[in-house]
Amino acid sequence: MGNYYTSRKALIGIILCLAWNTFLYLVWQERNNRLFKQVESTAEVIIGGIKESGKLRLTRAGRVAPSRINLQLLEAWGLSDVQHDMGLSSDCSL
Q1: What are the pLDDT digits (tens) for 16-72?
Q2: Residue 91 in domain
Q3: Which residue has the higher pLDDT, 22 or 3?
Q4: Contact at 8 Å (CB) between 73 and 94?
Q5: Per the structure, how many domains does the chain have?
Q6: Is residue 9 one of the residues assigned to a domain?
Q7: Residue 93 lies in a domain
Q8: Hey, is 86 helix, strand or coil?
Q9: Which of 57, 75, 80, 82 has the smallest number of CB atoms closer than 10 Å to its CB?
Q10: Is residue 24 a contact partner of residue 74, using CB atoms and an 8 Å limit?
């Protein structure tokens, strides 16, 4: 069953799932770069990659429930610029 925060239907669940999957991929990619190419990235570059990948994937995710909580969540995670692409507006009255 699961709770609201880990539900894949809730925006927080979608963001956490995307962030985790992207994190795993980028850490694996970083490992391979260090082992085989002797190239290292900074933590800031890896975190930036997670955010950018999350933004791209969220814009393709489609509409989510237009609620104040979802807008606040996007703002808190620095993803407020994807509101329009997701069908959310800042004048949400829910």
Answers
A1: 888 888 889 999 999 999 999 999 999 999 888 888 887 777 777 666 666 777 778
A2: no
A3: 22
A4: no
A5: 1
A6: yes
A7: no
A8: helix
A9: 75
A10: no
The residue range of the domain holding 37 is 4-86
Q: How far apart are CA 58 and CA 72, in angstroms?
A: 15
Using a CB cutoff of 8 Å and minimum separation of 24, what contacts does 24-30 make?
A: 26/50, 26/53
Find, among 48, 5, 9, the residue nearest to 26 by Cα. Answer: 48
Select from 78, 71, 75 the least CA-distant residue to 93.
71
> Confidence band (pLDDT; 50, 70, 90) for 94?
very low
SS3 39: coil
Domain-located, residue 18: yes
The whole-model pTM stands at: 0.61
